[in-house]
Amino acid sequence: MKSFSSYMQLQEIGNQPYRWKRTLFTEQVWQAVFVTDNKQKYVFKALKVGASWEVLFHAVGREDDSMGITGTQGTSAARVFSTVAKIFETFMKEKSAGMVSFTADKTERDGKSVRTKLYSRFAKNFAKKHGYRMSELDKRDEIHFVFSKEKNESLEEKKVPLFVSLPYKGAHKKESITGLENPSAGETLGFLKKIRFRQARFIVDKIGKLLVWDADNAIHQEVVTGEGWNRNETSLGIMDWVAGGKNDNKDLVIRIWNPKGGEKKSRTLQALKMRDETVWESR
User: Fold this and answer.
1) Which residues of the chain have pLDDT under 50?
2) CATH 3.40.630 residue spans of the chain
3) Strand 199-204's sheet: what is its strand order?
4) Per CATH, the architecture of 2-148 is what?
5) Terminal-residue alpha carbon distance, the chain
6) CA 277 to CA 227: how far, in whole Å?
7) Where are the alpha helices (DSSP H) in 131-258?
8) DSSP-assigned beta bridge partners for residue 56
9) pTM score, two decimals?
10) How many CA atoms lie within 13 A of 179 on its CB side?
11) Burial of 173 by CB count in 10 Å (0-12 exposed, 13-18 middle, 19+ buried)?
12) Among 39, 46, 188, 256, which residue is least crowded by beta carbons within 10 Å?
């Protein structure tokens, strides 16, 4: 009954995770931290290994406890788990990871069976909700979870037709181009790497809705008019993928003209801005 009651407790407070902060966002590393009520600090880190990601999570000072909640009990333990789940979902969305794995240690002295059952239940629910295939390998001292998705699957789901037109007499009728609506940071980077000149235009409205498209297909005003957006409430921008350029540690340049505030509400733009490899210019 202990594992069931712990799960029910988690469900009851699942909407009350600790406040957390993303501290690192690069091509190879994604990291976040949070602190519990009893001042215990936790670190969530995802490392890119080849084409896949490996997720690690531990309490500071207990680095040998893989995916553990050592030192927490009752509500605190459930809130820790709930926070990790929220961070994991955010990481997966922002990186659009095709393959991710994490390992839960089964040898922890306090509540080992409860913890592994909670992770197993979470993994199955997450995979079902977000369209991943999940495999679970139960070893002697640990359980290995792997999430996988067909390459480009999430990107294809985001592609939408964007209407284009110019606001003057005699302009061509509305046509459409293919673009992305509210893509994640990872999907946006993947899109940039595939288009011909590796340059994309984007617009973002006052509430943070983001549209991105190949810069070679339409100018900003065509999409603003075609989509019926208010020009006075829309921020315009360009993204350039510049990997391999003169500045080797920078691979993305984002320029925004006459920002109206919506760019601050777009999680995707803010995530891209926080990358160490991004050059952000606002005019």
Assistant:
1) 1-13, 65-67, 69-74, 109-112, 152-154, 157
2) 2-148
3) 159-164, 175-181, 210-214, 199-204, 235-241, 252-257, 278-282
4) 3-Layer(aba) Sandwich (3.40)
5) 60
6) 32
7) 153-158, 185-194, 220-226
8) 45
9) 0.53
10) 27
11) exposed
12) 39
| Long-range own/partner contacts, residues 69-78 (CB < 8 A, 24 or more apart) | 69/111, 69/115, 70/108, 70/110, 71/38, 71/40, 72/36, 72/38, 72/40, 74/9, 75/9, 75/13, 76/36, 76/37, 76/38, 77/6, 77/111, 78/6, 78/9, 78/10, 78/13
How high is the pLDDT of residue 171? Answer: 57
pLDDT of residue 83: 92
Type of residue found at 115? R
3-class SS of residue 105: strand
pLDDT of the residue at 111 = 44
Query: What's the chain's length in residues?
Result: 283
Which residue reads 């006075």 in tokens?
Answer: 232
Q: Estimate the share of the chain in helix, then strand, then coil, as percent rounded to the nearest 5.
A: 30, 35, 35
Strand duo 252-257 + 142-148: pairing: unpaired
- Which of 48, 47, 46, 111 shows the shortest CA–CA distance to 81? 111
> H-helix or E-strand containing 237?
strand 235-241
Q: Yes or no: say if 108 and 70 are a contact pair by the CB < 8 Å rule.
A: yes
Q: Tell the residue number behind the tokens 């973002």, with chain if given.
A: 204
pLDDT of residue 2: 40
Q: Cα–Cα distance between 96 and 90 in angstroms, integer?
A: 10
Name the DSSP letter for residue 5: H
